[in-house]
Input
Amino acid sequence: IKYMKKKSLQSLFLTGALGMMAFGVSAQQGLVDKTLHTTNVLVEDFTGATCGYCPDATTRIEKLMDDNGRDKVYAMAIHSGSFTGGDKFLNQFADALLSHAGTPGSKPIGRVNRRLDGTAKTYSRGKWTNPHASAVLASGDSPVNLGVKAVMTGDDIKIDVEVYFPASVGTNMRIATAVVQTGYMSDQSDYGSHGKWTGDYKNIDALRWMSTTDALGENLSATNKGDFSCLLYTSDAADATL
Output
């Protein structure tokens, strides 16, 4: 779902393990179907404005999206921790995700669908596509279908979410939503051919808001085959970060 806000393009996506709180129950709107769908990829990219190798990480994510389809691969640039001097995207939600990932100091570093690399929670950009994203894309059907619709009213975002389980899963299932921003121009270090972007680096999929600072999200109790849930979220408590 994409929409415009304050002259910049925003994107909203949903995944199964980030962090939020339901503000109410939504009426069913037909946002999901009952067909099995293959599993999608989410790359959580821990990054920063003074990280010289981070633009290369973005290039790798873009190639992963182009090679596999932008309806199959999603990304979230998490600006937190080291290498964020002068960074415009710092926020408490990014800090919570960094802590959940073990507070890695080096950048760029990330994770794909929260997979472990041996015992490591995060791993270098050279491992995002192979072995991790490749393994996710080859893993077959997902047991959960997610649908989302976002509506802007002034500076507030109302987010309707529908969840359907075409197959049963375990009881430890969580749901999360986040708003990311694409198109914001800023400074950025770059150890590649450009050297330094002075106010003209185009940021992609930068995390701006989550429904809570809990990186694990909200528990879902109805997770058996055929179960359906409607949830409603709003950004009005934190829209100052957008």
User: Anything to note?
Assistant: The longest helix spans residues 54-68. The first strand starts at residue 2 and ends at 5.
